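Sanity check record (used in CI):
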Amino acid sequence: MASIALKSFVGLRQSTPENNSIVLSKPSSAALPHRKFRINASKSSPRVTGRNLRVAVIGGGPAGGAAAETLAKGGIETFLIERKMDNCKPCGGAIPLCMVGEFDLPLDIIDRRVTKMKMISPSNVAVDIGRTLKPHEYIGMVRREVLDAYLRDRASTAGATVINGLFLKMDLPQSKTAPYVLHYSDYNSKTKAAGEKKTLEVDAIIGADGANSRVAKGINAGDYEYAIAFQERIKISDDKMKYYENLAEMYVGDDVSPDFYGWVFPKCDHVAVGTGTVTHKGDIKKFQTATRLRARDKIEGGKIIRVEAHPIPEHPRPKRVLDRVALVGDAAGYVTKCSGEGIYFAAKSGRMCAEALVEGSENGKRMVDESDLRVYLEKWDKTYWPTYKVLDILQKVFYRSNPAREAFVEMCADEYVQKMTFDSYLYKRVVPGNPLDDLKLAVNTIGSLVRANALRKEMEKLSV
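Expected output for Geranylgeranyl diphosphate reductase, chloroplastic:
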């Protein structure tokens, strides 16, 4: 168990060859790790006559924006439907360095470049993380309303039709080439709050509409465990903001969350303070109060300017593709355990799904079918499935008790751990380790776990 936890902590990531071109190569047809599908190329699919393939993207977050842009650039008639154009999802807003280059993000949408982090244990032992970062390396901190709007605008510039609307339901097609009929409320400038009921016929659908996905319900994709994330944006004085200029904090302990962590992440002129939990959703406000209490000296006198809460998926849905419908991002359940990272994986899955549709349709000239979407699903699972599994194990090993969390923070002090973890997080690739250092780290990991177990037993004796 310790060796598995070790591998997950240093960032088990399978390398992901990048191909940002819309003229795509044929993906590998290797079997999924957990289930085998026979992939049949759909080059014999009928041509679309008199128009290009029509695809609707439901949801305008990172997954939806990335998908819509890729579809539009690939010759597909694209519609993106999003209800909340100023959506401020309560996530920490951290993005890896590789996302900036891979998705060509302008630097002015990044509020802060975090080069230092403090991991703070249940007993308030603080470990400084970031000592191994190179001068040009950082974790980007963004506001979701800024990032999401940028990606949607770029999709619109590429040719996608962006609709301010609320997706309601869909009528399933009656044949292999018949359209899906989408029902939605259009909130244009004339109808305002009332909305105008409209329909739209499309050939395929990408569901990027979050944890409460109506697209997922429409294809009976099944349920999953979810966490509640709660976040407050707190405006603090300029003097206190200097402390968070390039620093983020993570708090672990039963007080801030029994199964996750609390955070203080810097934004442009305020800090985002939040926490999350799967197991004790009803106590989320109590955990949030504890997070503020742990950080009180650094945010004292601050004013809460916004309160946000949202469900966050804990594992992939049982079904993510059906016929000509695919789920991406939170709708598919692509949020990692332990770290809670989801922004990069949302944008990546949206782009990968759209690339599969562009390739399968020959740039919008042919009809697509389920086999085209399973190319995306197969590629995604082959690349990222191990990451999700080992991070799940890491969370179960180190987040199960306060003594285990103390051991986790103790491990974070090791510079080798920091280097391997940051390299894997920033670039989303496996970083080869030094065998001697790996062995040393394994011994230290086991020692930390043994000490944590001994401490747990002593605490149990005191509580009897």
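Residues 370-398 form the longest helix (29 residues). If this sentence no longer matches the regenerated tokens, the check is flagged for review.
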